[in-house]
């Protein structure tokens, strides 16, 4: 039976016998734990030579001797010679020092586990029977997948130390749970508190442990029950209590998500904050509807705007000249005014428009009409938020049924207020 023990090697002497690539990999892994490493070998590979040159490890040039193990807390041997490694194992046993034989795991008194790291959690896997590194690595890889998917509760101890908390802004994507990034799911697995919007992958909240607190602060058009300054205050106050706070937002935090304001509030209060990118509905919803925002031979530029104010002159000019695709977020309530302004600016009344409601979700619906009629058609079918509006030639139905022009183009993305 093999016991898996976590060793605190910080500041303690570790001897690595051998100067080749295998020994180099073990030394690099050991240095993460800050021990004092002595490498014993006649010659060193390039990686080890650099570590010695940088002063990160000590090197004794020559063949290993029993005295090299004196004072060591751990020995790892990887000389490439089975007889020499066996001798090192014997010397370590005489001194009651644990020894890992990297050339023959079954002969040493310790084994190196196959490891994976998720945040500040280190998971190690060893076989309890005969040494089987491949089996350990296979199990490690499967566990790593569970950790990456956020299917394991990774929260820290329940004792909260004031001033030790942090905030993570997680871009949840357009709504489908499987479009939430692995990093975002891992952040949720570590959360004590989740401050969530109304949109995005809110069904993922059902997967959280029952004692994770969920605070709803979502907005709808014209109705902001929790103003932004109060959201900022919630994030800061809960983090200062020592809690791990996840701010789950629809789309991407830095694309009309006010993520920048929340980062500034955290930094002003001295709260550590990080941002996890999300898949923006500006790009995901059209894709889910089969609308390429750029298409060779059709259009090569995209402008993304929000629908809370009138279209800019650059957006109108791009539509008038058919030189860009215009994507409007949060624009359903002002659709009629926006269409009227475009027509008054000289945009072709036949310009294709597509509205994608609930993009990527089971309730997704696509409404298409020419610019001159889109407001009336949307009213007739009852278009509702959340929806993404796409204006331009790419919004025409059947675009992908015809072969694209072969002329090269260069796509660019512009975010416009």
Structural class, please?
A: alpha/beta
**What are the secondary-structure elements, in order, as H or E?**
EHEHEEHEEEHEHEEHEHEHEHEHEEHEE
- The chain-level mean pLDDT equals 87
Largest sheet: 6 strands, mixed
Number of strands: 18
User: Which regions have little confidence, pLDDT < 50, spanning 5+ residues?
Assistant: 406-411
Q: How many helices?
A: 11
Relative helix content? 25-40%
Cα-atom Rg, whole angstroms? Answer: 30 Å
- Distance from N terminus to C terminus (CA atoms, Å) equals 65 Å
How much beta, percentage-wise?
A: 15-25%
Q: Which word captures the global form?
A: elongated
With strands numbered from the N-terminus, the spatial order across the biggest sheet is: 16-15-17-14-13-18
What's the gist of this structure?
The chain is α/β, with parallel strands linked by helices. It is 27% helix and 21% strand.
Explain this structure to me?
By secondary structure, the protein is of the alpha/beta class. It has 11 helices and 18 strands. Strand 6 and strand 7 (121-125) form a beta hairpin. The protein is elongated, with a radius of gyration of 30 Å. The chain starts with 12 loop residues before the first strand and ends with a strand. The model is unreliable at 406-411 (pLDDT under 50).
Topology:
Blueprint: E1 13-17, H1 21-31, E2 36-41, H2 46-53, E3 58-61, E4 74-77, H3 82-94, E5 98-101, E6 114-118, E7 121-125, H4 133-148, E8 166-171, H5 182-189, E9 193-196, E10 213-216, H6 228-240, E11 244-249, H7 259-268, E12 273-276, H8 281-288, E13 301-306, H9 313-320, E14 325-329, H10 335-344, E15 352-357, E16 365-370, H11 374-381, E17 387-391, E18 412-415
Parallel strand pairs: 1-2, 1-4, 2-3, 4-5, 8-11, 8-12, 9-10, 9-11, 13-14, 13-18
Antiparallel strand pairs: 6-7, 14-17, 15-16, 15-17
Helix pairs in contact: 6-7
């Amino acid at each position: 039976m093999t016991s898996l023990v976590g060793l605190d090697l910080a500041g303690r002497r570790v001897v690595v016998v051998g100067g080749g690539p295998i020994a180099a990999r073990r030394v690099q892994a050991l240095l993460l734990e800050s021990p004092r490493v002595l490498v014993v070998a006649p010659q060193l590979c390039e990686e080890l030579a650099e570590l010695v040159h940088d002063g990160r490890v000590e090197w004794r040039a020559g063949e290993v001797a029993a005295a090299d193990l004196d004072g060591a807390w751990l020995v790892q041997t990887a000389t490439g010679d089975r007889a020499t490694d066996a001798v090192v194992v014997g010397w370590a046993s005489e001194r009651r020092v644990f020894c890992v034989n990297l050339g023959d795991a079954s002969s040493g008194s310790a084994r190196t586990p196959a490891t994976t790291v998720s945040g500040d959690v280190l998971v190690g896997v060893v076989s309890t029977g005969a040494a089987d590194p491949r089996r350990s690595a296979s199990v490690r890889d499967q566990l790593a997948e569970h950790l990456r998917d956020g299917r394991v509760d990774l929260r820290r101890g329940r004792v909260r130390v004031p001033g030790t908390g942090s905030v993570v802004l997680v871009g949840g994507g357009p709504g489908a749970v499987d479009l939430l990034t692995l990093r975002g799911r891992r952040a949720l697995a570590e959360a004590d508190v989740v401050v969530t919007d109304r949109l995005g992958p809110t069904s993922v909240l059902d997967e959280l442990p029952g004692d994770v607190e969920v605070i709803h602060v979502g907005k709808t058009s014209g109705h902001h029950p929790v103003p932004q300054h109060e959201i900022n205050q919630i994030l800061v106050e809960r983090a200062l209590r020592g809690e791990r706070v996840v701010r789950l937002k629809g789309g991407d935090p830095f694309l009309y998500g006010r993520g920048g304001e929340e980062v500034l509030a955290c930094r002003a209060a001295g709260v550590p904050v990080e941002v996890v990118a999300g898949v923006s509905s500006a790009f995901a919803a059209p894709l889910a509807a089969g609308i390429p925002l750029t298409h060779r031979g059709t259009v090569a530029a995209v402008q993304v705007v929000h629908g809370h104010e009138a279209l800019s002159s650059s957006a109108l000019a791009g539509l008038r000249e058919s030189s860009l695709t215009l994507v409007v977020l949060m624009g359903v309530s002002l659709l009629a005014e926006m269409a009227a302004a475009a027509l008054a600016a000289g945009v072709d009344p036949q310009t294709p428009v597509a509205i994608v409601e609930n993009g990527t979700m089971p309730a997704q619906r696509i409404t298409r009409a020419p610019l001159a009629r889109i407001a009336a058609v949307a009213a007739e079918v009852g278009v509702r938020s959340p929806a993404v509006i796409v204006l331009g030639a790419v919004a025409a139905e059947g675009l992908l049924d015809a072969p694209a022009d072969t002329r090269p183009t260069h796509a660019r993305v512009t975010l416009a207020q």
